[in-house]
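2024-03-11 09:14:02 INFO receiving multi-entity request
2024-03-11 09:14:02 INFO entity count = two
2024-03-11 09:14:03 INFO echoing inputs for audit
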Amino acid sequence: LTVDSRQDAAVSFSLDGDRLEGSAGDTVAAALLRAGVTTFTRSIKYHRPRGPFCLAGSCGQCLMRIDGVPSLPACRVKLEEGMECARQNAPLGADADLLRAADFLFPDGLDHHHLLVQSRLLGRVALEVARRLAGLGELPSEVRLPVRGGLLDAEVVVVGGGPAGIAAALAARRRGARVLLLEREARLGGAALLDVDPSAPGTAWVHDHQGALAAAGVEVLLQADAVGLYPNDSASAAQGPALLAVRHRPGLLAVVAGRVIVACGGVSQPLPFSGVDRPGVYAARGLLGLVQRHGVRAGRRLALVGRGQELRNCARALERAGYELAAVADASGVEARDEGIQYTTLERLRARGNPVRELRIGEERIACDAVAVALAPAPLHELASAAGAQARFSAEHEGFPLTVDASGRTAVPWLFAAGRVVGAGGGRAPDSGIAAGIGAADSFAGGAP
Amino acid sequence: VSEKAIVCACEDVSLGDLDDAIAHGFGDVESMKRYTGLGTGPCQGKSCLAAAVRHCAGKARLPAEAQVPFRSRPPLTPTSLAALAGLPDSIVRHRDSPLLPPPARTGPHPLEPREALPGSARVVIIGGGIMGLALAWSLAGNGETDVLVLERGYLCEGASGRNGGGVRAQWTTPTLIELSKESIDFMGHFAQELGINIWLRRGGYLFLAQDEATLKRLEAGAELHKAHGLATRIIGPGEAGELVPELDTSRILAASWNPDDGVVFPWPFLWGYADGARRRGVRIETFTRVVGIDVEAGRVRGIRTDRGNVRADRVVIACGAWSPFLASMAGVTLPNIPYRHEIVSSEPLKPFLGPLVSVLGGGLYFSQSMRGEIVGGMGDPAEPPGLNQTSSLRFLTRYARALLELLPRAGHVKLLRQWAGCYDVTPDHSPVLGETPGVGGLLQMSGFVGHGFMMAPAVARRMAAWMGGAQDDLFERYNVRRFAEGRFEKETFIIG
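2024-03-11 09:21:47 INFO inference complete, emitting structure
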């Protein structure tokens, strides 16, 4: 691991009882990587070593017990002085977990449905063993009483403060709607802040538009993470047909909305090749964020695999961020003609070592400090589709963008969407946001509310 | 570390596991999720769904464009019980006017099979839930193999795939006690009979009483159970606390405890019957919608589907909460009323909870699954009737508040996914079985009020025998005509 020299104050914490030092402003994941720790947990079934992948709170590979609370995403928890972190699912220690034998006993996978079905007695033994091995974290150490939440409402609620969300919020506000913009992070900008795509709005665009939000009178709530979107079936239904559950420290806010515009972007996802789950394989965008926010790099030499334009954009961005690229491999199944990019298939890829020190592409062995995966972020359709919006698979968008009409409206009358979540990320995000913002504001009976 | 290619890191699902699922006929991601565990961990499929769809496109020859993403289950990211319990009271109060249903899918399902249905079958069973599948297997075991089962979605799409897996013999009517006893015994050797594990874990059922009236009901129940050879007994808060150390026993008066009750894993229970029935020659067609039932001169003649018509002299309606809708296609009115019941699953925790715990009066229940999740639900007295399978924030808040009162150490535990299913509620909380008065050959197998899942083996065995000509007064006593005649078979141990 390499670390930019920084002036930040040291923060002392512990891992499995050993004292470590991080830096003020670190997440737990950043602090552990800074300290050279790459195995964060043992996996649930095979006890394979696991480390962080997405570094953005979506993948579930970095769950740890932190201050007595099980399965918290280390990449989302801010490091605090004296924090006690523990690796889970490793009764004999995460570095030498004997239960990893399960990984070798079932080399291709585990068909638990048909395991030992012949014998009632063996079945009972299997049941007892499986029961004892199941689960990830232990119960929380302490009683936690309900944390009092709050209630907000707005005519238009925009979920996501990236370019699409910012544009949508501005457009809806300019049409007269009372707008609340929810952003998960402590600052606006979303994916634009990584400056991956040269043709898309970047940090400069975000700075230019931030002032416009305040001037227009858009209410912005930072560190507000929408975790649920429901048709409003509560007593507050007269205030709006939609109900959001929004995590906003320390508790949850219920937000009643007349219209909702989902502009929550996408999430990094891995590619299913052998060894992709090993410590030392990261999402390319996760690594970029790690450098940008914490000045931490996963070594110097990266092997980068991915598909399409995102692979090429990430290659350039990672080089700008100080990485040396040992290989750039396109696994899209299409012959790549770009200089410096090699063609491969998933079947030919193998990441080896713990943490990963080698990427094999067929017979070729590429020495590296880490492997990065660059796929266009998968549209985060789940929030909207749980509320009834439709999503259809798109290979180009690496997932399921939401289906919307020209005004950004989904199949649910009060629900709109914009940006990457509808397959209009990057350079198309602002226009997509404007359409949804106008669509939402104008959809109130009689035009602007 | 072995060479396997992991596609779902949360649940350690490999590409080999996906291939195995495809080989067993689970090539659509909704079924694949249930068969492999893909997408059921802390990330809830955000990292694996697209990769699985691409893999299926190559291996199962299922075009990616035909795949419907598996149904998103709130919350988007794991959310703690303590935070949910603290939401304002206005969220918990019901709106006055009913909610409009969500937009329904129109046209054929993208995965609807292309091949034609048979022109006729001796028995058509509408509904590929646990009742219909168990009946098909039992019929075929008696030699009646010309059976066609029709399911409008994937296997497990209805209530049989949406319940908490609880199985118990603690009932207040002798018939239900006997049906459950036989069924749970059968579950004990289901793997040997049907070749798939359902992971029956007999951790017991602990019914809590928080008031004198409930305690009286539990005591009366325990007396009856004793007469039927069950091990049920009434225990005090101290003993309840030994069984569930995390329980705040200051909130209970006493409990009814039966150590032989338990929990199964619902999905393989259906798949086992489906596979077994297929091996015996039964045809099971998923993603196929029944649109009509033909009746002539007081007898059923066949059914119509969106894939063509099938002639049959015997048609069984085993559609759970949808049964009244199907019966209406034959001009028959059933008294069953659907009610939504919501349920939620937590993050996977190391084992700490043996029994399924239920508060009989308040409708809360929870248990720990074989995967370590706390799976629980809670009835809602204000729930309006209707075929509603949407999830609500109100439920999460009510459940979180009720659970934390009993299990205060769970405050930091996070919920991973919520869903809903429909209870099929009859006026006396007992099933509707047997031949429909006035429509010969139209057989009813519904009205199980959320507990059909745990009685299916025995009900199906007896129904198959009765259809083969055996005498069984079950199908007279529970005939739908009892409501017109004013006879009721009142069951009172209903959760929720």
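2024-03-11 09:21:48 INFO post-check: Chain A touches chain B through 112 residues (CB under 8 Å).
2024-03-11 09:21:48 INFO post-check: The longest strand of chain A covers residues 251-262.
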